[in-house]
Each structure stands twice: as structure tokens, then as C-alpha cells.
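This section describes the prediction task in plain terms. A model, or a person checking by hand, is given the sequence of a single protein chain and must write out its three-dimensional structure as a string of C-alpha cells. No templates, partner chains or ligands are provided. The sample shown here is typical of the held-out split.
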Amino acid sequence: MSKRFLLASAVLATLAPAAAFAQSGGAAAGAATGAVGGAIVGGPVGAAVGGVTGAIVGGIADQQQPEFRQYVTTQRVPSYTYREEVRVGAVLPESGVTYHEVPAEYKVKGYRYTVVNDKPVLVEPSSRKIVQVIR
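The expected answer:
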């Protein structure tokens, strides 16, 4: 038991600076936060799983979503009609979808946004996967 505690403490000590730095949001914040949380619950394996899960969940913070939704509305981005469910992990088609830069104030680097079935979404550009549906 004490070895697990020491190992978890070492992982937390290693990841704490990254978690503090990652307070700015985005996938990096999600990864660091997930890794720290995973380390507390499941040790080194939990840290790895938590880091990957956190990176996937990283995106626009809950409190900024209404503001971002309003921003997208003012941009008058046309909505792409998608026959599948609009959900995280869905892959958008190669053609027909227009992606836009996310303003720096939302602190989301590496993603683009578009509107699908009248819902703003964040997309990972190289895979075209939806990483966040803005509520």
C-alpha cells in the first residue's frame, strides 16, 4: 500500500506543474487534469488513461460555451446538414464542410469550429472528428 501511495505521489509531483500551467484550457488542460485525476484514482495506469481521456475532452470551458455559441451566431456560419447523430467522435465528411478558426480568447488551439445541424461543434482538423458539441 505504501509503495502505491509513494508512486502516486511521485506521479502527482511530476504532473502538478503541467496541471497548473494547463489552467488556460484546451486539450492540454484536459490532458493534464485527466492525468492528475487518474493518478490519484489509479496510479500510473490511471494517469495514462486519465491523460488521454482528458485530452479528448479538452475544449471550450462550460462557462464560455454560451458566449461562444453567440459568437458563432453573429458570424452567420451556414449549418452543414449531417445525416448521423451530432456527437463527440463522429467523423465529418471530407467535402462540403467549412471549418473556421476559433478566436484566441477561447484558448482552444489546434481545433476549428463549424456548425452541424444547427449545433456549433469543435473539430480536430486532420481527422475531421468532432471533439466537442457546444451546448
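For orientation: The longest helix spans residues 26-57.
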